[in-house]
Amino acid sequence: MTTDYDIAIKQGGVEEDGSAPVVAVDHLYKSFGSQKVLSGISLTVSRGETLAVLGRSGSGKSVLLRLIIGLEKPDSGWVRIYGQDIAGLAQDQIGQIRKKMGFLFQHAALYDSLTVAGNVAFPLDHHKRGMSRSEQSDRIKQLLAEVGMEGDLEKMPSDISGGMQKRVGLARALALEPEILLLDEPTAGLDPISAGEINDLILKLQREHQMASIVVTHDLHSAQAIADRLALLNEGNVVIEGKFEDLQQSDIGFVKEFLKQS
Amino acid sequence: MSNGGFTTVENVNPPLPGRGTMAVSSAVNFSAELVGGFFEWFGSLGIFFWQVLRAAVTPPFEWCELIRQLDEVGSKSFPLVALAGAAVGAILSMEASSSLTRFGARSMLPAATVYSVILEMGPIITGLIVSGRVGAGIGAELASMKVTEQIDAIEASAINPYRLLAATRILACILMLPLLTLAADACGVLMGWVAQTLVEPVSLHRFIDSGFRGATFNAFLPPTFKTAVFGLIIGLISCFQGMRTRGGAEGVGRAATNSVVLSSLFVILADVVLVKFILVVFP
After folding, report:
1. Which residues of B touch A127 (CB under 8 A)?
2. Residues in a beta bridge with A35
3. Segment B153-167, tens digit of pLDDT
4. Portion 120-179 of B in contact with A at CB < 8 A
5. How far apart are the CA of A177 and the nearest CA of chain B, in angstroms?
6. Does ipTM top 0.90?
7. Position B7 in a domain
8. Domain that holds residue B51
9. Is B3 contained in some domain?
């Protein structure tokens, strides 16, 4: 199957070396009124790689994800997906790129008028119109089985716990077989056991689907468990980027303080 | 200067030389904010309308959602609109009966009732009832979706929320308002007849015949179809208020209230313009 990644390689959008960035954030600035949120962030994520973006609450982690998927426009700088600047694309072109992306929102953002199955079916209904009813039903069951929710198809979002909502949100994010997965605080607000289960689930999905993933979190243990690389944000800038060991060996005061408090 | 150990008022709270100037300045600032907010609101509404229009005319079309909204706006508003129309018809008939009898023109009662209901009362009552029921519903639903990031989730799923949520609701309002108006008109005329029959028995056939005598389609169609404009106003303002909501439960409440208040206000204002327009174009 030819993916957008392959097409981009042919078009010269990215290097053909396997480690080329699927997502590249370049000197990204974003403010809301007088409040500066991001001040020139640059990051890259390659195929099959998981980058954890860490930082204090309000450090701009979630805004970074919203910029990457095009829900916000940057003040300046670029977000390149497969080499294409997302801010310069027309709405239908952004739509084509979004079909290759899965997004898990911090509070799952499930459609409260639809059942669990309806939530997972939602992207399929709109983008896989050729799929028969039985094929769709099988796909929904398969996705919900992947996240351990196969027994709750007909439940409403309000009838399930926060951890279960995140699982359903993850199943919905995976519905279109994304090549890029964006996870906003996947373990926030969960008890340690549920958080561990979500971490295991993300690792399992990573192994099976080989997606480029960006996980925003302030949970260092979660980041250590699921990420290949970590980037620590403070006041809109990347303070340090590297493996967990690099953070441990850092002499930067903020990094030491963050590790100590986590 | 000693004043017997008491502190004078001037010492505690010395007169502020700039108080008057500050009051004027704050009034100017307030007015500027108000005017700025007014233009900002209309500008944003215009941009929103353009985005909805562009989304509505480009495929894929959201037929399933449109049908769901036609049911939501039409079928579920029908009982309320019919009841309101019936009440208005009965009231008009009773009021007109006493007034017309005083002037010796009681024979004009069917025509007075029919014309009043169909030309003005049916359309405006339908517009106001729908702006109350549907406007509040759309405003609150979309606002709730907005603050819980469900609209962002739709957009992140590569689905245009203007097409799925706004265009379908606005189109449903535009299509259903004239039909609901016909229902309100029919119930109004029927109850007008019932009210008259209770005082002075007259057959429905004779009441209708007398009420519509000399009337043409041109007299009745424009007032009925002007409610499509009411539908546009109700749908557009409610979707706009809902989808621009910020804040939590308070924001949702505010969006619902503003949807009803603004759509009702603009329905009444639009009615003034449309009545004049109809009188000029269809004399």
Report:
1. 157-158
2. A32
3. 999 999 999 999 999
4. 144-145, 148-150, 152-153, 155-160
5. 12
6. no
7. no
8. 18-58
9. no
